[in-house]
Design brief:
Elements lengths: L1 E6 L24 H11 L10 E5 L3 E6 L9 E7 L3 H9 L6 H5 L1
Antiparallel strand pairs: 1-4, 2-3, 3-4
Length: about 110
């Protein structure tokens, strides 16, 4: 099985794809290095040899994370191949929360 996922941040759910305006943008996810760090914290083992194209290979699935060259990152793609626990890993990534600013400074 394979599928592609677009990842964006937004305060409210985006419109359905068929109704999405051409100029719709999510919120910035952060600086590229920080986005890669947060992804790796949720998905240990991502190979960032090419910082614009991470890869996570497990026995059950492969994720290719197409980050592009933008900084800050406004969104990225995850190309999923395989099955097994892929959905569990994706849900873990999707529910990751940023640390509140006050906690990072202390």
């Amino acid at each position: 099985m394979s599928w592609d996922i677009s990842v964006y941040a937004a305060d409210v759910p985006p419109p359905p794809v068929g109704e999405m305006p051409d100029d719709w943008k999510g919120k910035a996810l952060g600086h590229a290095a920080e986005v890669r760090r947060r992804i790796s914290a949720c998905l240990p083992g991502v190979d960032w040899s090419d910082p614009s194209w991470g890869q996570l290979v497990s026995d059950e699935f492969v994720f290719e994370l197409n980050m592009g060259d933008e900084d800050p990152v406004e969104g990225f793609m995850i190309h999923v191949r395989g099955g097994g626990q892929a959905v569990t890993a994706l849900l873990q990534l999707a529910t990751e929360r940023r640390e509140p600013e006050r906690l990072r400074q202390g």
